[in-house]
Amino acid sequence: MIPTRDGAEIEIKLYTAKNKRPGSAMVLRYHGGGWVVGGHCTEHSENLMIAGWTNSVVVSVDYRQAPEHKFPYAANDCFDALKWVGDRCGKNAASLGADASKIILNGSSAGGNLASVVAIMARDEGFQGIVAQILTFPVTCHPKFFPKEAYEMGSYQQNSNDSVVTAARMEWFWDMYMPEPTTDWRSSPLLAQSLKNLPPTLIIAAGCDIHRDEAIAYAERLQNEGVDTQLKIYKGMPHCFYMLQTHPQTKDYYKRIVEFVGNFSS
Q: Which InterPro entries does UniProt cross-reference here (predicted)?
């Protein structure tokens, strides 16, 4: 358990390789689930794989969820977890077997939203140590405020009923997390005033996902503001397709994630 700014405690779960070498990178994992459901189990398989194949320490953060804890609790908890890791001159990270100067933020879906928000928070507060971020199917903007004049946004209509996360379900998630929508970038990082000086980023999008176009828009904006950004779109695949463990695209996805983490974990 680790502390948060309001005195509450949240749980973290560690994943490490059996024969982990010292000085490992830390992958700070923010799970998906629309800010409402999910937990350490949501990306359990991927966390095991990353830890085992990259010699990194994966730290899964069990942030507080809506509707009991609405925006901005989840974002604040996730940033507080990052600050705890880097606290005491990195001794907290060292106690977990990781190097506080090699932190990779990693999140899927709503977790991708939280990872992108935490990266901006860290930049604005001068936090040192984040070397990369991985955003998989990231939620980057409330659909009510998506800048359609600047970016394509057809995926909500094209894929409204084609995936485990439908447009109607996503609307419900947003209502639980932020009942009174605003343009606050801490919920819609695509609307942040600046995305400059963020860490190297890998963005994964799925062709049959409602979040496809907001992921592409975020990648485009990062690139336009000078951030080293890789974008991979898995055509014809749905939201959370990596749960289809034997699918060839899932194997490629895992390979891509491992290679990206490996660039920063040595």
A: AB_hydrolase_3, AB_hydrolase_fold, GDXG_lipolytic_enzyme
Instruction: Examine the residue annotation and report whether 209 is marked as an active-site residue of this protein.
Output: yes
Select which of 56, 109, 116, 187 is catalytic.
109
69 tagged catalytic: no
Any idea which architecture 2-265 has in CATH?
Answer: 3-Layer(aba) Sandwich (3.40)
The answer on pLDDT for 88 being more than 90 is no
- Catalytic one of 77, 209, 211, 265: 209
pTM: 0.96
For 56, the token pair is 């990194």
The pLDDT score that the predictor gives to residue 89 is 53
